Amino acid sequence: MHMKKIVVATLLTVGLVVSTLGVSGTSAASPAPVSGVTSVGASNAASAGWANWGIGKGQTFNDPRNSKKWKIIDKIKRTIKHTPGGQKIWVMTWNLQSKGIVKQLIRAHNRGVSVRLIMSRQLAKEQNGNGSFWTLTRGLKKGNAKRGWARKSFTRTCSNSCRGWGGSMHSKFMMVSKAGKRSKIVSQGSANFTHAAATRQWNDWYTVYEKGRVWRAYKQVFKQSLKDKRFGAVQAWQDQHNAWFAPFGNQGDKVMQLLNKVQCGGAVRSGVDGRTALRIASSVFQNKRGLRIARKIKQLHNQGCNIRVVFTMMTNKIRNALSGVPTRHLVYDWDSDGSFDRYLHMKVMTISGNWNGDRDHRLVFNGSANWSKIGAISDEQGMVVHLKWPEKQYAKHINYLFNTAPLIARGTPDDYKSRGTNPYAGLELELAGQG
Q: Per CATH, which fold does 251-432 belong to?
């Protein structure tokens, strides 16, 4: 495993002027010169009435147990479908395994959209020649020879994290310069661009548009990621939205920073019965970082905060640290084959109540990062949204997950080490290795 040199991480301020970066790094497949560029005028998007379409902002959730499973994937595909020729679609996703998304991305490219996608090199290598990543790579070659750099389409991969040392390429976001009547669209969350993200996982997806500072921060991170070398930490603030990116560098642990500002008593017009309320749906609590967060949650519980936690995986030590805190283990063995195959994949926390001296504060923390050591050093993204409506919707959804999760507590991975079968085997490979 190639390890990059450690340098001092530099926090980039919101007002940072983004310089034009050249593209180096390793290409998953070099575009072959192909003659002919498809006409932008005969755009499929235009014929579909893209100009009047408006993407919904805010939160989107799916549920793999019912017909809502496709809500996030369908939103991604509709956004791509309504992107006209001459625009840009830039994607970072840990994994790409969706024929429907690949089909829409190739169609967008053919009508003149610049489509660029970065994913994990390890997972790209594991796909055969007909896999989604390689199908997209071949599809984006058409017409590139006659396109200028700004309009070219391509795929790339990164060894470990793109912008850090070690870790993995674990981001999950899409940038669209214009789709329908909205511009500078950024959508991000816990969902990979995969079939499993709909049919096996509970995920979230949060969308903003026309927020220039947020857009520029994502653009900076994407351009840096193409170079596959270490860069400093990035943040951006705009309109109660704090866009954050990992590797965290010298920024510290965002989850702990939020928790450390919680006061359990004195909530006014928020929280539950005057107590600050926390709703947590985090798939993975692991190693020292996960234990540190769990102990803080338990401390706040002891101080009177109203807390609900939904999770997929944690060690016995971490589960013991949360003893007494209301928790639900959201995993199912849907096909009864001895392995868990439906599971929580979100990485979300809501706070309603007394926070940072404000007795009526509401916020949502979301993104792609698991609550583990590797989640702090990998390529990750997310937002802290300081607004009432998103917090209420996220809290409502986590309450729904908590109330509908299996009542029977499953054992932890530690409990199965001495047994003949381990229902976590597939989840450990994905989530512990970054899912």
A: Endonuclease; Chain A (3.30.870)
